[in-house]
Amino acid sequence: MKLYTKTGDGGSTGLYGADRVSKAHVRVEAYGTVDELNSAVGLARALGVGSPGPETLDPDLEYLQNALFDLGADLATRQESPYGKNLSRIDAEDVAYLEALIDRYQEGAPPFTGFVHPGGTPVAAALHVARTVARRAEREVIRLAHEETINEHVQVYLNRVSDLLFVMARAANQAAGVEEHAWLVKGRR
């Protein structure tokens, strides 16, 4: 089987369920951004190989990557599609699981006193990049929800993903002994 099908050469793509839409359709933008988020999480995982601390993050990041594939499939399948029965849609239990992860990482983190510079270790910096992609994915999903019916849990889940990635970045820095730097208004000290 060849990787290329040539069916998208004219600028359209197939949703799960055989509907064809423009590659610029807001639904494709939403699940495409989730795919980008998944790749950013993968980069953070790759950077963590052999680094102090990130080995404890890896199982949770692997869970997240699998969940993001589910979320992408959810977005690629219209709510009314009969093909929806073939996939695992994001639900309230998934959101609760992320909230438990956030709480667990937050318990071990230094007190949060405000905005911190994205960065620190390569792993933490990559997690911050992933966090910003998660925020963009959330905005794309909100845009899609203004046009079509979507699974209500997807937007909430993406909101929690960005929070999780933030606390994981803090955990990676803390495990490596890297100090976070707070935002200084207009660079004042």
Describe the protein in words.
The chain starts with 11 loop residues before the first strand and ends in a 14-residue tail after the last helix. It is elongated and about 50 Å long. The chain contains five helices and two strands; from the N terminus they run ββααααα. It has a two-stranded antiparallel ribbon with strand order 1-2. Helix 1 packs antiparallel against helix 2 (54-75). The chain has 189 residues and is mainly α. The mean pLDDT is 88.
Please summarize what this structure is.
This protein is mainly alpha-helical. 58% of the residues lie in helices and 3% in strands.
Question: What does the secondary structure layout of this molecule look like, with pairings?
Answer:
Elements: E1 12-14, E2 20-22, H1 26-48, H2 54-75, H3 92-108, H4 122-145, H5 152-175
Antiparallel strand pairs: 1-2
